[in-house]
Amino acid sequence: MFPPSTLFFLSILCDIISNMETIVAFDLYGTLLSTESIVNQLEKHFDHAQAHSISALWRRYQLEYTWRLNSMERYEDFSTITRNSLLHTLADYKTRLSDDDMEQVMRAYDNLSTFADVKPTLTRIASDLSIQAVVFSNGTKSMVSNSVLRSEDLSPHASTFQDVITVDEIQQYKPARACYQHLARKMGRDPTTMNNIWLVSGNPFDVVGARSTGMQAIWVDREGGGWKDAVSPDLRPTATVHSLEQVVQEIQKHKEGLKI
């Protein structure tokens, strides 16, 4: 047994070491996984152009449903939202899928393709002891775990992530403040001071939500269109990258800037 004074010292040391590590929370859908890759499955039932249109509208309704539910203070899990938003999309196109085909499309959502920049980025982060990488998603624990552990593209990098954090436990969706505070608590950090936690997301609404809580946020602008979100003009990304491969460099630049 260590004496109380030693235990106290060790506790402080552990806190210091923990706070030296940079938490980097990666959004899943639209950041690591391409939601557009579901087109391959949809093309089994629709022509190429219609499959692309259905995929885009499905994603729009999927996000819209989460925001509506937040506003109504109601909750449906992300799997249910994903199914219902697809049904809405198909109704808009005056078409439908059989129950079996719906199940196949939904299962394909667990095996979305990663973007090309994911593999080199996660390979680099896996060897960087200063970074604690986690997945932080609106998806259900089951959906996200299936994607991380079973996806052909993402599963080889599953060990890079120290945790998978979803909104199931708080039953609110991003960009609700409670979601980002939940992330901080799960990582053992104070939710009132989150400037040492980084979000990496390709979704502007997610970036704005994180910044509104004091988190750092990197927006992944793969299309190079520039930042346009004006919902709250003072809330902008800490940094913008065109590839995930620039993420670690941007975090390091930010840290060095704080030291000057």
From TrEMBL:
* Source species of the chain: Penicillium salamii
Q: Which family does it belong to?
A: Belongs to the HAD-like hydrolase superfamily. S-2-haloalkanoic acid dehalogenase family.
Q: What is this protein called?
A: Haloacid dehalogenase, type II
Keyword vocabulary terms for this entry: Hydrolase, Signal
Pfam annotation, one family: Hydrolase
Q: Reply yes or no: does the keyword Cytoplasm apply.
A: no
Signal peptide residues are 1-25
Tell whether Membrane is among the UniProt keywords: no
GO MF term list? hydrolase activity, acting on acid halide bonds, in C-halide compounds; phosphatase activity
